[in-house]
Amino acid sequence: MEAKNLKKFEQEMNTCIRCAYCSEECPVIVQKGWDTDGARGKVALSYGLLSGDLEPTQSIADKLFQCTLCRNCESKCPSGVEVCDIITSARADLVEKGYASDIHNTVIKNIKETGNIYGDTEVMAPLQEGEVPLFVGCQYLSRPNKTKKYIKILEKLGINVKVGREICCGFPMEVLGFKDDLEKHKGQFKVLFPHKEAITLCPTCTVFLRVGHDVDAKHILQIILDKLPEANLDMKVTFHDPCDFSRGLKIIDEPRQILEKLGVEVVEMKNNKGNSSCCGGGGGLLMSDSKLSDDIALARIRQAIDTGADTVITTCPTCETVLKKAATQIKELEGKDIVVRNIEDIIWKGLK
Amino acid sequence: MVELDIEKLREIVGKENVSDDIADLYVYSSDASVHQAMPSVVVRPGKTEEVQEILRYANQNKIPVVARGAGSGMSGHAVPIDGGIVLDMKRMNRILDIRPEDLLVKVEPGVINDELNKVLKPHNFFFPPTPSSGNICTIGGMIGTNASGNRAVKYGGTRDAVLGLKVVLANGDLVTLGTNTKTDASGYQLARLIVGSEGTLGIVVEATLLISPLPKFKAMAVANFDKLEDAGNAISKVMSSGITPSMVELMDNVAITAVNKALGLGLPDVSAIIIFECNGMVKEAVDYEMNAITKICEVHNGSGIKMTDDPKEMARIYEGRKKLFPSLSRFGDGLVSTSLADDMAVPVSKIAIAVHEIHEIAKRNNVVMSAYGHCGSGLIHTKILMDPTKESQWEDAKKAVAETYEFVRSIGGTTSGEHGIALSKAPAMKLERKDSLEMMRAIKRALDPNNILNPHKMMDAPDDWTTATRLRYNVRGGQ
Ligand SMILES: Cc1cc2nc3c(=O)[nH]c(=O)nc-3n(C[C@H](O)[C@H](O)[C@H](O)COP(=O)(O)OP(=O)(O)OC[C@H]3O[C@@H](n4cnc5c(N)ncnc54)[C@H](O)[C@@H]3O)c2cc1C
Ligand code: SF4
Ligand code: SF4
What is the pLDDT of residue B328? Predict the structure, then answer.
């Protein structure tokens, strides 16, 4: 097949020495066990598609879409191979050949038609005038109470944000392989969000505003860290680093410092900070293979339970949703209890 | 193409553990070597009886069976040159018995080296053979290749750490080889014969391994050398002085450039850097040895010598060294690292001239070659940095490989010190061990008369490694 997106990565793929260091903690191989499931396997499949050794098949497409784009592989690769860019390029070439799943097609159609991933015409941004532009993003737009909480937190700390009508940042187009659509979408995005800097709520939007739109996006936690007054919530929790937070944005200390300020003790999970394990919800996996996504989430929630903490805090709405489901499942399966909360709830509590 | 009864295999291991899907076949067609050949099916057994049944079936039907651990072998070990069944052993990953009081542990072959060490740590023990790939490679693969690593200079390689094995033979029979003790004079040393046999004589299903108490104290020193010759002399002097370092690692300038680029380590731009490590139970003894090493380095014009026993600093140095090989791919100029001529061993006093000659060979043949490795045991790693998409570069590489091994033989060295032979080193080994090739073949015939176990490897591999299989790169014509 013509692999126009992968072509740009030929040298990068030649650089790969096939050592499999990247597969060591790839959440997909950890669950499924075949070499094909690990990051090295995905690089090999991509290379096969590029060289023409492989013609696209559904099974090859499935393997390349079974990836949460958690970047654990990249953090382990001593050759610095851009595994995730290779995988999204392979996806883009496969999508051109008609291998997008129905659900992925629907999400992209939704973005194109309604500006958000849900296809919900009722979704409204909490429009307001202010000084600094705030980008809310689809996930928070669909969770209006959480968004309000964050805006109130900012207000209490003396930061007035401006919220306008917005559309999806386009990240799903990038990761699901709809690169041509993304290029068109970027133009529309710029019209509605012409700002050079922004405060963001969702880790993933933060990454993509930076790399996809050249916006100097700062996650809200980076903004409020210094302004937040101390509190004494007297809680013991564990912290789940979302992949886009710890590996994407390299924001590792800030959430822990915030929790410390609020009097919350953090006990670390086995995999933490830059080596955090994925919740299973990224890269479109939640939509394309919910069973695998659930299994990855269960493994993560088990790590959280093993810390002895009764609450796990995170900073990403997708991680929160996925881990909450896993917490319910673990209760049913193993009778174990753990509460999942997003950090804005804790900050809100600390400020009250 | 081999005719296979996939249903039969599904019955043996369960349908979820068998695949003939193109995606799986393609991924299992290559490892960390330059080679590639498609299997007919991938099977993932979970217990010994399943391995026995698979082999009985394969032997009756003369179907090749290639065991695979992590597929980190560098010479095409797990590449199924004749197709057939690839047996992914990673599901058999239980640690069966930990007996520090007997200095041994019993494990299944799919256990990962580092996982074993994590489990042994609370017992204050460790499994000494430590390949750089310890985070991914399996005990079965280590036995298959007779792997060793940084610490072999003090503790020996895998062959020194295998006390006993349970092995499924080609006909499906299960045999127990070796014993539970360090000394064993009871007949042929058959467990040792299996170590390094690259899956050609039997499938290891259980291993009894010798473990060692974790040393209480450890220190490292790093020394820079402006001349390779000085570095070589320093290594030889240290090794012959009665000191027992636990690690002696050399990095040449090509390697230094590559790790600096890839990992930003900021190492000095010198001809060679040597990392020494000593360990033991008595701090004064470790300090004494480290001081003696430092003095030897000074006498041989070593500079910027730094000694440390700070665990964080030692971990940083060690991590940098562990990631050296993959880092070579970031050397630049469109050149990438290929696993060729990768692990010869030479008498310790010959290290400097060997490294020097390797650089000359590289220049003559339009490739870049680095030299680094566990030099305290004479082991030199070289990798060929080249543009693998150009056909002409493979001709260059072929000549460079042949010239390198010819030189290694001329100074009394050997083709492989730790990674094994498989395909890409077979032509050189056949020249080096020409007297014993028939003996090897006789052993192979006796244990595997139908030639089903990893056929056409080592002594039976093709004479031209560049055409032994297709190359896993997208090779195009042109200069
Ligand atoms: C980055 C990198 C660094 C490395 N560093 C080192 C190093 O420092 N030292 C070193 O020695 N090697 C090193 N290697 C090479 C490689 O990791 C070792 O040879 C390792 O022992 C191979 O283990 P594996 O599980 O990957 O085996 P595989 O590559 O899967 O197999 C290797 C061989 O063992 C056979 N085998 C596997 N399992 C069994 C079994 N159960 N029974 C019988 N035969 C079996 C296979 O058939 C094959 O012939 C390195 C490789 C890489 C990629
Ligand atoms: S760690 Fe990097 S070099 Fe190694 S197999 Fe993965 S992508 Fe390739
Ligand atoms: S991004 Fe995560 S899931 Fe995808 S290959 Fe890398 S480690 Fe595996």
Answer: 83
- Residue where a domain terminates, one of B294, B309, B327: B327
Helix ranges (DSSP H) in B276-329: 283-299, 311-322, 324-327
Q: State the Cα–Cα distance between residues B227 and B254, nearest whole angstrom.
A: 14
Indicate whether A244 and A198 sit together in one domain.
no
- Determine the pLDDT at residue A78: 84
Distance CA A222, CA A219 (A): 6
* Out of A41, A57, A78, closest to residue B27 by CB: A41
Name which residue sits closest to atom 6 of ligand 2, judged by CA: A22
Nearest CA to ligand 1 atom 27: B141
* Greatest alpha-carbon span in chain B: 68
Closest Cα to residue A48, out of B472, B414, B194? B472
Of A16, A64, A66, A84, the residue with max ligand 3 atoms within 8 A of its CB, to mutate for a pocket test, comes to: A84
Q: Count how many domains chain B has.
A: 3
Query: What CATH number is given to the structural domain containing B113?
Result: 3.30.465.10
Residues B193 and B255 in one domain: no
Whether residue B11 lies inside any domain: the answer is: yes
Rounded to the nearest angstrom, the distance between the alpha carbon of A186 and the centre of ligand 3 is: 26
B359 domain-assigned: yes
CA angle in degrees (0–180, nearest 5) for B270-B304-B384 = 30
CB contact under 8 A, A50 and B474: yes
Q: Which residues of A227-264 are buried (b: 16+ CB within 10 A; e: fewer)?
A: ebeebeeebebbbbbbbbbbbbbebbebbbebbebbeb
One domain for residues A148 and A199: yes
Q: Please give the residue range of the domain that contains residue A211.
A: 132-224
3-state secondary structure of A60: helix
**Do B478 and B391 touch, CB atoms closer than 8 A?**
yes
Residue B186 is given by DSSP the state: S
- Mean of the pLDDT values across residues A212-217? 97
Q: Which residues of B132-146 are buried (b: 16+ CB within 10 A; e: fewer)?
A: bbbbbbbbbbbbbbb
B2 pLDDT above the threshold of 70: no
CB contact under 8 A, A34 and B42: yes
What integer is the mean pLDDT of B37-43? 98
CA distance A227 to A159: 10
What confidence tens digit (pLDDT) does each residue in A129-159 have? 999 999 999 999 999 999 999 999 999 999 9
CB contact under 8 Å between B474 and A17, yes or no, is no
Taking CB atoms and an 8 Å limit, are B329 and A45 in contact across chains?
no
Q: What is the DSSP letter of A246?
A: I
Q: Which of residues A224, A243, A277 is at a domain's end?
A: A224
Residues B248 and B203 in one domain: no
Whether B478 maps to a domain, the answer reads no
- Chain B positions touching A77 (Cβ under 8 A) are 326
The model's pTM: 0.96
Backbone φ, ψ for residue B61 (5° rounding):
-105, 10
Same domain, B255 and B164: no
Q: Out of A15, A20, A77, whose CB is closest to B70?
A: A20
CATH number, domain of B261, equals 3.30.70.2190
Judge if A80 and A186 occupy the same domain.
no
Identity of the amino acid at A102: D
Question: Is the pLDDT reported for residue B478 higher than 70?
Answer: no
The answer on B368 and B258 residing in a single domain is no
Answer positive or negative: Cα dihedral of B427, B428, B431, B437. Answer: negative
Strand partners, A134: A199
